[in-house]
Amino acid sequence: MNKILDEINKPSDLKRLNIVEKKQLAEEIREYILEIVSNNGGHLASNLGVVELTIALHSVLNCPEDKIVWDVGHQAYVHKILTGRKEEMKTLRKLGGISGFPKTSESEYDSFDTGHSSTSISVALGMARARDLLNKKNKVIAVIGDGSLTGGMAVEALNDAGSSKTNITVILNDNEMSISKNVGGVPALLTKIRVKKTYKRSNNCIKRFFNKVPVIGKPIVNLAHVIKRTIKQAVIPNMYFEDIGFTYLGPVDGHNIQELEDILRKSQNVEGPVLIHVITKKGKGYKYAEETPDRFHGVSSFDVKTGETKGSNKKDYSKVFGEKLVELAGKDKKIVAVTAAMTDGTGLKEFSKKYPDRFFDVGIAEEHAVGLIAGMAKSRIKASFCCIFFFFAKKF
Ligand SMILES: Cc1ncc(C[n+]2csc(CCOP(=O)(O)OP(=O)(O)O)c2C)c(N)n1
To answer: Ligand 1 in contact with 116 (CB < 6 A)?
Structure first.
């Protein structure tokens, strides 16, 4: 059978597909990514989670005139596949091969070089303001995960964008995961918003039921209305995004292409900043990645059938560091460890399990981590370890 993916070489090719074909395409892309990452290693779970979202974005937008800024950029494989780099994806993580992140020198469809988290809203806002100054009409969209939304820079950008009248769309890709489970107040807020959707649905069901009850039906509906208002005040959180100036749309099922396209089109008629809350499943479609998305966030090559990685079990610096810290912390209760959403990457997994009261994951918030540890160090916590994962900078 001919594959739909074989016929897709640029985003405009998507525009002649119907929804059934797009669903088929989504499955083919998942298989393709699984094949590449299981052979070469790479970021798996985040990419499997954005397949439908990326198809919908490229179906509705007109890239490269319209700009998509991918936060972190580790989830841009589907975007690369749909923008003419299908074959090159086979060279992922090979010497001289394709980048695993958006790269402006690689394609006109990559609007910005990313790698660090929480930068997309600032960059997109900059592009949107430049567009307005230049009297252009293109759309600008930042796609940011719920993990990256814990970063200070993202919150600073929301604050700026929300108070502006600038037309910009922020897509919040909410899968409840950073690399590990997302932490802090942001996930708590998002959970409350998701509850709102359940509440809305159950409210409609109750209404339909009571309306069918003869005679006493209507009065009960009125009573239900009063109860509803009371419950609403208790259940629905203060709409943070609306309060800071965004039009909030969603939450929407991030694996339903039709719903995604509808909401994206709707957002284009809204003036000012819009936030679309998209719910996705990290690792979607591959059993092992759905079950353990943290293990399949970034992986070395693995066996698709068993999910077992093929890499050696050699010790790296993080492992040696983590083991030593656990040993020292056993002898000294004033040793604490702080990480910015990189428990595994900085070798702190064992520490976090053994000494949970002396372990702090602050989210993707490195500046805050340093401030926090400084406060502890100033308050007689003798040995405070702030473990920050390092990225090598590259020349722009
Ligand atoms: C400043 C910074 N700190 C840490 C990282 C490492 N990192 C890469 S992806 C990621 C998690 C991102 O989570 P989220 O934004 O929710 O995206 P998801 O992978 O869940 O789609 C982290 C912590 C980074 N890229 N940049």
So the answer is: yes
